[in-house]
Write a structure and sequence with these properties.
Layout lengths: L1 E10 L5 E2 L2 H19 L4 E5 H10 L1 H16 L3 E6 L7 E3 L2 E3 L17 H17 L9 E4 L8 H10 L4 E2 L7 E3 L4 E3 L9 E4 L13 E4 L4 E2 L3 H13 L1 H7 L5 E2 L10 H7 L4 E2 L9 H14 L5 E8 L6 H18 L3 E3 L2 H8 L1
Parallel strand pairs: 1-3, 1-16, 1-17, 3-4, 4-7, 7-8, 8-12
Antiparallel strand pairs: 2-14, 5-6, 9-10, 11-12, 13-15
C-alpha cells in the first residue's frame, strides 16, 4: 500500500473579528511556510480569497500582505487552492473594525440581491487565478473547500459552477461530522466509508455517483469517536487544563462561534460524538492521537493499492505547540512508512493523472 498525505491549511483570518492581521494570519502563516520548507514537504493553502477581495477596498495593507504570502508559497513549490468564506462579501468595515455578515455559507446567498452564489464563486476563482499566475503562469485552480465545510443545501448550484470552472477536487467532507449552530448546519453522518469517491456535479457530497461529469471528493481524514474516547478527552482536559490552555495560540481574534446564538444541550450532546479529526491545531491533540487516526485508516483501507490521508489545520490557530506537533508528525510518518509514504498536493495528483 502507498500512503499519500495531503497537508492542507485553511488560510484565513478569524471570521468574527481580529485586532491584528499579523497575529491573526500572517505571522503564523510565515512560521508554517518556514517549517514546511525545513521539513521538505509540500503543503496546500486553501486561500480565503474573498477576504482579500474585500480588503483590497477596505485596507490595501492586508491585501498586499495576503498576496505576498500566497505568492511566496507558490515560489516555494507549495500549492494554493480555493477556499470561500462568502460572508466577507456582505460584511462591513468601519473604524478599522470588521462587522461580519450573518450570512455564513454560500447557500445563504441563494436569493441575495447583491451577490449570487454563481457570482461569488466566479469572482473568487478569477481573483485567485490572477494573483497566483503573476508568479506561476502555469498555475491551475483545481480544488475547493467550502468555508465551514458547508455546501448544502445548494450543492447542485455550487458544484456545477466549480465543475464549469475546471475544478475537479473537493475536500469539505468529514465522515460522521454533525454541526447544528445558528449560523451553520452540517450533517455528514451518512457519507461513504470510502477513502475517496466520485460526486456528481449536481451533488450532494455524501453520495457516490456513476455520472461521467464528476468531481473527486477527498474527505478530511478522521476516525469515529466513542464513549471511552470522549471520557478520556474530558478527563485529560480537566486534569491538564492549565497545560492545554498554555498551548493555545492568541490570534487576537474572535471566531463565528463566539458571536453566534447559544447551542442547545441536545445539539451539544450530538456534536460530542463528532469524529476525531487529523489536525495539528486542536490544543488537546497529541502525536499519539494523530498516529492512532492514521493507524485506523491504514488498517481500514489495508487492501487498497493507495490511500489518501488529508490533514486539516488553520495557521490562525497554530502556535509553537502546534508547529512542533506538525514537525513530530511528519518525522514520525517518514520514519514509520519510509518509501511507502509521500506528501502530495492536488496539483501533483492532477499532474500524475493527466
Amino acid at each position: 500500500m502507498k500512503i499519500k498525505i495531503i497537508l492542507t491549511f485553511d488560510y484565513e483570518l478569524p471570521l468574527g473579528w481580529v485586532a491584528s492581521y499579523e497575529k491573526g494570519l500572517f505571522e503564523p502563516g510565515q512560521h508554517l511556510l518556514a517549517l514546511a520548507n525545513q521539513l521538505s514537504v509540500p503543503i496546500v493553502l486553501f486561500a480565503d480569497i474573498c477576504s482579500a477581495i474585500r480588503f483590497k477596498a477596505w485596507d490595501i495593507s492586508y491585501y498586499d500582505r495576503f498576496k505576498s504570502q500566497i505568492q511566496t508559497a507558490l515560489r516555494d513549490n507549495h500549492d494554493v487552492q480555493l477556499h470561500i468564506h462568502p460572508h466577507w462579501m456582505d460584511s462591513e468595515f468601519e473604524h478599522d473594525k470588521i462587522i461580519p455578515s450573518s450570512k455564513f455559507a454560500l447557500s445563504d446567498f441563494k436569493e441575495d440581491p447583491n451577490f449570487s452564489i454563481d457570482e461569488i464563486i466566479r469572482l473568487a476563482y478569477t481573483a485567485l487565478h490572477e494573483m497566483c499566475r503573476e508568479v506561476d503562469p502555469g498555475y491551475r485552480c483545481l480544488a475547493f473547500r467550502a468555508g465551514g465545510y458547508n455546501v448544502e443545501p445548494a450543492s447542485k448550484t455550487i458544484l456545477n459552477v466549480l465543475y464549469d470552472l475546471g475544478i475537479r477536487y473537493e475536500s469539505s467532507v468529514i465522515k460522521g461530522l454533525y454541526q447544528n449552530y445558528s449560523f451553520s448546519k452540517i450533517d455528514y453522518r451518512q457519507a461513504p466509508g470510502a477513502n475517496y469517491w466520485k460526486i456528481s456535479k449536481d451533488g450532494p457530497l455524501h453520495e457516490v455517483t456513476k455520472s461521467p461529469s464528476y468531481l473527486l471528493e477527498y474527505p478530511i481524514t478522521s476516525m469515529p469517536n466513542n464513549f471511552l474516547n470522549i471520557l478520556r478527552r474530558r478527563m485529560t482536559k480537566m486534569r491538564d487544563r492549565k497545560n492545554i490552555q498554555s498551548r493555545k495560540y492568541n490570534n487576537s481574534g474572535r471566531g463565528f462561534q463566539a458571536i453566534s446564538k447559544k447551542t442547545s444541550w441536545i445539539n451539544k450532546i450530538q456534536m460530542a460524538w463528532n469524529p476525531i479529526v487529523l489536525s495539528f491545531d486542536r490544543d488537546y491533540m497529541t502525536l499519539n492521537m494523530l498516529d492512532k487516526i492514521v493507524n485506523y485508516n491504514v488498517k481500514k483501507f489495508q487492501h487498497e493499492k493507495e490511500i489518501f490521508l488529508t490533514v486539516i489545520s488553520h495557521p490562525k490557530s497554530m502556535g509553537k505547540y502546534h508547529l512542533n506537533l506538525m514537525k513530530d508528525f511528519v518525522l514520525l510518518m517518514k520514519k514509520k512508512y519510509g518509501d511507502d509514504l509521500s506528501f502530495v498536493t492536488y496539483r501533483s495528483i492532477s499532474d500524475k493523472n493527466r
